TrEMBL record:
Presence of the UniProt keyword Transcription regulation in the record: yes
Lineage summary: Bacteria, Pseudomonadati, Bacteroidota, Bacteroidia, Bacteroidales
Protein name: AraC family transcriptional regulator
The keyword Signal is annotated on this UniProt entry: no
Keywords: DNA-binding, Transcription, Transcription regulation
Superkingdom in the source lineage: Bacteria
Positions of the HTH araC/xylS-type domain: 199-297
Matching InterPro entries: Homeodomain-like_sf, HTH_AraC
UniProt source species: Hallella mizrahii
Molecular function GO labels: DNA-binding transcription factor activity; sequence-specific DNA binding
């Protein structure tokens, strides 16, 4: 699938696109709704993003994390978490889909901030496809129209705030929908001990608020070895525990730089960095910019 790219002045939004965002330019959301040409690869499943894909017509199948094959047909919704591997795509010539792609930062802000959302994470990992009711299709259409509208608008003063609320709203809407289905899981599909360890790790990660940067702390709190914790996280996400920790720390740094009036020194101290120099090095490594430039870029875009 290859469609024309329409990049708007606001770098937080891209509509109907064929791209691979880089960390420096990654938009908050990408909306795909033009499938006039499916002669090329299915390119809207960008790695490390949160994908909501609704099948309007035709069929699409893919292998998830090298083992689970899922087929979508009319009325099916597939939710793909960040760090999920997708391959072996097959699709019919008449495929028509609506696909919303959200950046990892949007998801981290929502999933890690509210413990009530955590039970849905493992459910989605094991049950990525669900069939929508008529009422759910109607709600989904309303969200599509909102995202479509914002993909065409010129930037406004409060657009970032509005989009932030919209992203959180659709995540809660999806969580509400999934909770109605989670009660129907058979006994033999209930969560294993490793599932619970993974969820407890996410809970500790959220509670740490980016102030803990070593894997050994989390392993100690969970009463398991660092090696075993790393194995569980790698198995569940395809990434190391250290990578998830660093992502959480980086997003908290970005949040404090963009949404608080604290000085850079105060933020570094608050997050337990031994020096401003080390804080700057860490920020440049994980956010591709110095603390001052991150704050400057955010304020310039307001």
């Amino acid at each position: 699938m290859s469609t024309p790219q329409q990049t708007l002045p606001n770098d937080n939004i891209i509509a109907t696109a064929d791209i691979r965002p880089t960390p420096e330019t990654e938009p908050e959301f990408i909306l795909y709704d033009d499938f006039a040409d499916t002669s090329q690869q299915i390119d809207f499943f960008i790695p490390n993003r949160f994908i909501v894909a609704y099948c309007q017509q035709g069929t699409l199948s893919a292998t998830i994390n090298h083992q689970q094959t899922t087929t979508l047909s009319h009325g099916d919704l597939m939710i793909v978490l960040p760090r999920t591997s997708l391959e072996d795509f097959n699709y019919s010539d008449d495929l028509q889909m609506l696909v919303l792609s959200l950046s990892p930062s949007v998801i981290n802000d929502s999933l890690l901030a509210d413990k009530n959302l955590w039970p849905t994470i493992e459910f989605v990992a094991n049950h990525p496809k669900t069939h929508l009711t008529d009422d759910e299709k109607e709600v989904g259409q309303q969200y599509y129209q909102l995202y479509k509208s914002y993909s065409k608008r010129k930037p406004t003063k409060f657009q970032r705030n509005i989009l932030h609320t919209l992203h959180k709203s659709i995540i809660y809407e999806i969580a509400d929908m999934l909770l109605n289905r989670m009660d129907t899981i058979p006994e033999n599909e209930q969560y294993s001990q490793t599932d619970n360890t993974f969820k407890n790790f996410l809970q500790l990660l959220a509670m740490s608020k980016g102030k803990v940067r070593n894997v050994s702390y989390f392993a100690h709190e969970l009463c398991i070895t660092t090696k075993y914790l790393s194995h569980i996280i790698k198995d569940k996400t395809g990434h190391s525990a250290k990578q998830l920790i660093d992502e959480t720390v980086a997003q908290e740094i970005r949040r404090q730089l963009c949404y608080t009036s604290k000085t850079v020194k105060e933020i570094a101290n608050d997050m337990g960095f031994p020096s401003l120099s080390f804080f700057g090095t860490y920020t440049r490594k994980h956010l591709n910019a110095s603390p001052a430039n991150i704050r400057k870029k955010y304020r310039a875009g307001k």
